[in-house]
Amino acid sequence: MPSGLKNSRQPVIPPVTPKWSLLGCGALGGVFASLLTQSGQSTRVLLREHHKSTLHPGIDFTSLEGYVQLLNIERGFVSKPGKIQRLLVMTKASQVIAALTPLVSKLDAGVPIVLLHNGMGIAELVVEMFPHNPVIAGVTSHGAMQCGHFVFRHTGKGETWLGPINDAAKAHAALADELALALGQAGWDEQVLTRQWQKLAINCAINPLTALYKLKNGELAGPRFADALQQICVEVADVMCAEGVATTAEELQRRVMTVVELTADNYSSMHQDMELGRETEIEAITGFLLAKAARHGIAVPVNQGLYQAIKEKSQAV
């Protein structure tokens, strides 16, 4: 064999499976993808097909401290997702089922699915779709903003909690530790349902009001909204107690006002969706509450009024 051909065949290097695959790259998805990448954890974002013609060479990320960085994050598409090690679903609640549907026959059994969206009632549907996969619910209070095409800004640091929806998920508590490397804090809670309800209460209070009145979160701290916020918390507390989740209206209101203060300069996700003419998450937030209230025969007039107002305003856009 001529010496020049001796090493002509290069070894075949198998493709590396990213540690995290993120389904959805909206405001929060873009921020989480950026933080995971900055922490040294290999990350891929899975996009819908229409993004093929509008790909950006990288993600333009602005940190909480104001540092701007162009991050090279692997892109994939749901039609050909490749090997997935763990799936972090970052779409809006109303988009979760549609986004996951193309993966039903492509996701290996045993791959954990982590759901991070506002509202409730979606995780149970995902368990039905993927009966052989661990399904994990998450709640987070991080603030995020999308400022352009693959341009994201981290606007607020918060807490993130994960917990099991099915028995198979209980073996994956270590995922919270790995997320914590990127987020600064992330915990595992076997009783994540309680945290989901607490987050729902916060969303029921902040999101519809800020969207309807075009406010920053901090503007809810004034006396104008004191009665409405109090009544929203009373109604949510009544439903939570009927569902077996112990709480008080006072506790929920303290949580709401803490978030209002910590995110004073932020616009809620529902406000951003409404301003941009996008579908809101009202069905998975207040709509979920109304359905549970009806089941228990509990009157929730303030939440009902906000739900109707958001629906009417959304249709008028």
Beta fraction: 15-25%
Radius of gyration: 21 Å
Distance between the termini: 73 Å
Oligomer kind:
single chain
Q: Shape from CA axes?
A: globular
The description of the largest β-sheet is: 8 strands, mixed
How helix-rich are the residues, as a percent range?
25-40%
Q: Could you say which structural class the secondary elements and strand pairing correspond to?
A: alpha/beta
Average the pLDDT over all residues and give the rounded result: 92
- Tally the helices: 10
Strand order of the largest sheet: 5-2-1-6-7-8-11-12
Describe, in plain words, how this protein is organized in 3D:
Belongs to the ketopantoate reductase family. With 317 residues, the protein is of the alpha/beta class. The protein is 39% helix and 17% strand. The protein has ten helices and twelve strands. Strands 5-2-1-6-7-8-11-12 form an eight-stranded mixed beta sheet, sandwiched between helices. Strands 4-3-10-9 form a four-stranded mixed beta sheet, with helices on one face. The longest helix is centred in the middle third of the chain and has 22 residues, at 192-213. It starts with 19 loop residues before the first strand and ends with a helix. Mean pLDDT is 92; it is low at 1-8.
